[in-house]
């Protein structure tokens, strides 16, 4: 019975394809059943997530991203660094745990749920920290998809301007494209292209986070999955595989990340959920409230 329900919920999470929902369905399974410690999702969840990160590296080409984002690339790099640093700084001032601040900074500055899921194993984040970060980002993304197109009715941005604004201000790629699609095809093309420049920051983010949070017995080394991630990204940049191969790599990455997040959800208990506080919500919302107007100003200036 347990295995059947678990497989059904996992299949549903893969069909829906949303990282936060995958996590929530895993939590549902954990709340419905008392899962044994040797249950598959508890034993192999982190490994599946790490495998997904390796395939993510294989789908990222540093050269291609730079070529398609020449006009905005340096600005986006500066924007990502400043946004990340500000979340970490503000999180420290508010007394939020270092790892949760790191996850929120990753999701805010880089690419929402994908960045959070990619960084979590590197920094050895607790399941409840991942859950909190993903929940907050999921809510902000939902608000963005609804409100950004409505705001544009008053702002009157061109399709190019709106696409750039969405790419800078909205966290998840799917939400960026979703908001831009309500404006026009040109807006979608600009938004998707520029969002890739933020997504590419997963490469240094995973490497740096793994080094910062390495165990004492690891010295200056990196976890094995991070080394494979780097090699995969380098191979993609050198070999430049065609679109079909890249699409397969992205699909495998997506399946692994969704499955991994589902497994992390099964490790969360009612006690963990009760531990969620309002401070992380205030942190993420405050930073986002600052990002929205500053990114809009940047788009209007450029």
Structure description:
The longest helix has 29 residues, at 127-155. The protein contains 15 helices and no strands. It has 302 residues and is mainly alpha-helical. The protein has one domain. The protein starts with a helix and ends with a helix.
List keywords for this structure.
single chain, 302 residues, mainly alpha, 15 helices
Q: Tell me the radius of gyration.
A: 19 Å
Strand content: under 5%
Computed structural class: mainly alpha
Q: Unreliable runs, pLDDT <50, ≥5 residues?
A: none
The biggest beta sheet is recorded as: none
Q: Mean of the pLDDT scores? A: 81
Silhouette: globular
> How many separate domains?
1
Q: Supply the number of helical segments.
A: 15
Portion in helices: over 70%
Sketch the topology as an H/E string, one letter per element: HHHHHHHHHHHHHHH
Distance between the termini: 58 Å
For the secondary structure, the number of strands is 0
């Amino acid at each position: 019975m347990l295995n059947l329900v678990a497989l059904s919920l996992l299949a549903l999470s893969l069909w829906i394809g949303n990282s936060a929902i995958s996590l929530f369905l895993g939590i549902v399974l954990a709340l419905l059943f008392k899962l044994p410690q040797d249950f598959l999702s508890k034993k192999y969840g982190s490994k599946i997530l790490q495998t997904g990160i390796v395939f993510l590296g294989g789908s990222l080409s540093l050269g291609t991203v730079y070529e398609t984002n020449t006009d905005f690339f340096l600005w986006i790099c500066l924007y990502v660094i400043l946004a990340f640093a500000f979340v970490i700084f503000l999180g420290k001032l508010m007394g939020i745990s270092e790892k949760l601040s790191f996850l929120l900074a990753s999701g805010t500055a880089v690419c929402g749920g994908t960045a959070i899921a990619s960084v979590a194993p590197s920094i050895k984040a607790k399941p409840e920290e991942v859950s909190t970060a993903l929940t907050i980002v999921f809510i902000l993304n939902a608000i963005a998809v609804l409100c950004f197109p409505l705001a544009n009715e008053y702002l009157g941005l061109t399709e190019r301007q709106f696409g750039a604004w969405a790419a800078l201000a909205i966290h998840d790629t799917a939400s960026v494209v979703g908001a831009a699609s309500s404006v026009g095809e040109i807006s979608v093309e600009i938004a998707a292209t520029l969002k890739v420049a933020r997504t590419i920051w997963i490469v240094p983010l995973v490497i740096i986070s793994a080094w910062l949070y390495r165990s004492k017995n690891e010295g200056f080394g990196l976890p094995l999955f991070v080394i494979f991630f780097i090699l995969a990204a380098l191979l993609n940049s050198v070999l430049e595989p065609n679109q079909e191969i890249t699409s397969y790599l992205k699909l495998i990455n997506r399946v692994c990340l969704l499955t991994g997040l589902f497994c992390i959800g099964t490790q969360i208990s009612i006690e963990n959920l009760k531990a969620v506080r309002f401070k992380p919500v205030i942190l993420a919302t405050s930073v986002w409230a600052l990002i929205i107007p500053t990114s809009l100003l940047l788009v209007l200036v450029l």
